[in-house]
Amino acid sequence: MIYNILVTGGAGYLGSTMVPDLLNAGHKVTVLDNFMFKQATLNHVCHHPNFSVVKGDIRVESVIAPLMKKADVIIPLAALVGAPLCSLDPVGATTVNHDAITLMLKHLSREQIVLMPTTNSAYGTGDENNHCTEESPLRPISQYAIEKVGIEKELMQHPNAISFRLATVFGMSPRMRIDLLVNDFTYRAVYDRFVVLFESHFKRNYVHVRDVSRVFQHALINHEKMKGQIYNVGLSDANVSKKELCEHIQKQVPNFIFIEAPVGKDPDQRNYIVSNAKIEATGFKTEFSLDRGIGELIKGYTMIRNSLYGNV
Ligand SMILES: NC(=O)c1ccc[n+]([C@@H]2O[C@H](COP(=O)([O-])OP(=O)(O)OC[C@H]3O[C@@H](n4cnc5c(N)ncnc54)[C@H](O)[C@@H]3O)[C@@H](O)[C@H]2O)c1
Predict the structure, then answer these.
(1) What integer is the mean pLDDT of 221-240?
(2) Out of 59-63, 249-253, 303-307, least confident range
(3) Which of 8, 14, 169 for a ligand 1 pocket mutation test, highest count of atoms within 8 Å of Cβ?
(4) Whose CA is nearest to atom 1 of ligand 1?
(5) How far apart are CA 208 and CA 168, in angstroms?
(6) Mean model confidence pLDDT for the chain
(7) φ, ψ for residue 146 (rounded to 5)?
(8) pLDDT in tens, 98-124
(9) Which residues form the pocket of ligand 1, taking CB atoms under 6 Å from any ligand atom?
(10) What is the C-alpha to C-alpha distance for residues 143 and 188, in angstroms, rounded to an integer?
C-alpha cells in the first residue's frame, strides 16, 4: 500500500535516513522541519517527484493542520531531543515535545495512522535484575523523559497509533549526531584515543539508525496487526555496559584507551537490559550489529571533524 506520509523533523538524524527509504518504497513524503541546525540533509532527495518540503514550526496550528489533512500517515520526529538540550531550553522543550504533539493529536482523524518514536530512557534501572519489557514501570527523571512518557500516554488513546520505544540510536546519517553514546565514544576513540567513563557498568540498549528506518516501514506493512501497541526497539544482542561498548570499539581502534572516574551522572540513571521480544514476535529482525555500526562510524569520521575553531 502506498501512503501520503507527513514526516515532521524529517531533516533530523532519524528523518534524513528514513525519508529516502520511504521514497524508495514508493510513498509520497512531505517533510515539515524548521531546520534549526541549518542542516541541508535532504538535498539528495529533492529530485524525487514524490518529495515535498515545508519550512515551518510544528507548534503553529496554521502550519501543521493543513499538512495533516493531506496525510494518511504521520511520523512525528520533530523534537528538542535529549535531556541536555531540554535543560538548555525547558520552555521550548515543553512546547515542542509536549504541547505541539497534543496539538497534532487534536487534528488527527480516527483513520489516520501515527507512528511515533518515544524513548526507553524512562525505564531507569528496570527490575531487581535490571530487566525491562513494555510492561515495566516507568520512572522518568529528566524533563525530556517525563514529557516523552506523558505524550506516549496521550498518543496511545488513538486507535491507529504505534509507539516505538527506541534504544539509543547509532550509525551514520546525513544529519549526524555525535552526542549519541556509540557515535560519541567512537568519535573520541578516533580523534582523542581516550575516554573517561562514569557509571561504566551501566547497561544500555542500542539500535542502528537504518534499523529504525526499517522498523517504521515494517509497521506500515503490518499496521493492522501492530496498531494500538507499544514496542521496544533495540538489538537484543547489544544490552551492553559503557565499558563493554568501549571494548567493542577497541577491537576496531586498538590504541583506544578508556579509564574510569566519577566525573558525571546520567540524568535518567539508565541501567537496564531491555527485552525486544515483542517487536521480534511481529517478524521484525534487526540487520545492523553494533560492530558493523562502529566500523561504519570510523569510516564516516574520516569526513567529519569538529574543527570550526582550529586549523586541523
Ligand atoms: N536518536 C535517538 O537515539 C532517539 C532515541 C529515541 C527517540 N528518539 C526520538 O526520535 C525523534 C527524532 O530524533 P533525532 O535523533 O532525529 O533528533 P534530531 O535533533 O536530529 O532531529 C529533530 C528534528 O526536528 C526539527 N525540529 C525541532 N524543533 C522543531 C519545530 N519546533 N518545528 C519543526 N521542526 C523542528 C529539527 O530541525 C530536526 O531536524 C525525536 O522525537 C526523539 O525524541 C530519538
Answers:
(1) 95
(2) 303-307
(3) 14
(4) 169
(5) 8
(6) 94
(7) -60, -45
(8) 999 999 999 999 999 999 999 888 887
(9) 8-9, 11-15, 33-37, 57-59, 77-79, 81, 96, 117, 119, 166, 168-169, 175, 177, 180
(10) 27
CA of 85, closest atom in ligand 1: 19
Q: Where are the alpha helices (DSSP H) in 116-254?
A: 143-155, 181-191, 209-221, 223-226, 242-252
Whether the model clears a pTM of 0.90, i.e. scores above it, the answer is yes
- C-alpha grid cell, residue 295: 566500523
Q: How far is the CA of 97 from the centre of ligand 1 (A)?
A: 9
φ, ψ (nearest 5 deg) of residue 71: -100, 145
Cell 528523518, located at residue: 15
Q: For 256-269, give the secondary structure using H, E and C.
A: CEEEECCCCCCCCC
At 65-93, the pLDDT tens digits run 999 999 999 999 999 999 899 999 999 99
Residue 165's DSSP bridge partners are 118, 232
Q: Do 208 and 234 contact (CB within 8 A), yes or no?
A: no
Q: Is 109 helix (H, G, I), strand (E, B) or coil?
A: coil
C-alpha cell at 262: 566519577
Banded pLDDT at 234 (limits 50, 70, 90): very high
Domains and CATH numbers, the chain: 4-171+206-235+274-288 (3.40.50.720)
pLDDT band at 35 (very low <50, low <70, confident <90, very high): very high
Site of grid cell 498518543: 155
Q: Give pLDDT, residue 242.
A: 94
Choice from 8, 13, 115 to test ligand 1 binding pocket (greatest atom count within 8 A of CB): 13
